[in-house]
Each structure stands twice: as structure tokens, then as C-alpha cells.
Write the C-alpha cells for this entry.
Amino acid sequence: MSEVLDKKAVKAAVREVMDELSITYAHGAGVFLDSVMNSMADVANAFDRFYTNNLAKDRPEAAVAFLELRIRSARTAVKIVSSKIEELEKLQSQINRHLRSSMGRTKRRRAK
């Protein structure tokens, strides 16, 4: 027969379930975002390649101005992506520092 859980045990069990759900959700969301971003990039790249190549063959004079704009756009995209990478790495670093700090506090508490 199962024993009756006290209030602390129930809270701990609920907290553990919520933590596990949060981790599963975060992982699933990350995988989904990665898949979406890769798919969007593939589609955009294929269309860009198709359009640019056809424009260069059919209307080379128009392709010159278009390519200048595409190069400028690509450089801007690189800046945006580089900035996003820096932002994410900074956040990752902050989280890692927080986790290391929390681990240190936990070890000190256990040592007492």
C-alpha cells in the first residue's frame, strides 16, 4: 500500500515534474526553431540563386544594380547574425556563471 505524502513531498514531486516538462519543452522548442531556420534559409537561398542566375543571364545590365544591393543586404545580414550570436553567447555565459555559482552554494550547504 502507498504511504501518504506530506505537503513538502507533494511540492517536491510537483516541482520535479514541472522542471522535467520545462526541460522537455525548451529542448523541443530549440529543435523546432533550428529546423524552421534551416528550412527557411534553404528556401530563401534556392530562390535567391534561381533569381540571381536568371537575371544575370537574361538582363545582365539589371543584374549589376541588383547584385550591388544583394551584396549590401548580405553584409547587413552578416552584421545582424553576428550581433545575434554575440547576444546569445553573452546570455549563455551569464547562465553558465549563474549555474556554477548555484552549484558552489549547493556544495557549501551540503558541507555544513
